[in-house]
Input
Amino acid sequence: MRPWPGDKCPPDGNCLLPGGNSRVPGGNSRVPGGARVLARRGVPLSQSPSADPTGQPGPVQPSREQSLDQAAAELGPGGDLAPEADAEGYRKRMARRREVQQQRVGERNLEKGLVLVFTGDGKGKTTAALGLVLRSLGHGEHVAVVQFIKGGWQPGEARALQVFGEALAWHALGEGFTWETQDRDRDRQLVQQAWQRSCEYLADGSRKLVVLDEVNVALKLGYLGLDQVLEGLALRPPLTHVALTGRGAPPGLIERADLVTEMKMVRHPFREQGVKAQAGIEY
Output
């Protein structure tokens, strides 16, 4: 069989593809490398089954992980949200949901050091990062916390976590809010010193987690450059996690992050009720 000129098949629908040597009646041909292409009468070989008549690429098919995620969403979390009124129907739905969940977990087995950003105008950013600190310490890991801006007081968590001894390194290297310090040059100097200490911990393979508390605020105030932070993140060993907290995380940091959570303020007792900062809640 001779090669057919151009990119179409002869009238009988059988082609010899350029560079290939397969001839399958009906026009399905295999080319070197194992890829199957469509080669039927009157259809350009460059078109795939999902392409439209103009030759433009068709819609991208979802990956297996995306298909499993969609199946999990359609099956739902159960409870009274499930449409089944009978116990047997509900059991079948949840059995299928468990099967899908096991497949989702099985498909995702990558382990890596994560960049986690907690930002937004709502309360809970530092609290979320400290939850990771406690969790990591509970697994016997070593953790470092470097606080930017903060430093004019000792929060309750710093005292409570002293029980972990050398497993936790805690540094509050600021002197307070800008309206308290009233010295921009001094603030900038302290932030740069805190960043140098942070880089030491980021490069330290013995630290499973490094928390850079309020570093986003230091970025927002211009005391620290985004390039500095991104270069520092690159110092980490492959399995070291880093959590960055504070309002106003810049787009470049958000783009680099593996996880971003934005805390949204819905209600706040200080603004709405005049309630002061209280021990155990704010510090």
Observations:
- The chain has three domains: 1-48, 64-107, 115-273.
- Residues 115-273 form a domain with the Rossmann fold fold (CATH 3.40.50.300).
- The chain has ten helices and eight strands.
- The chain has a mean pLDDT of 82.
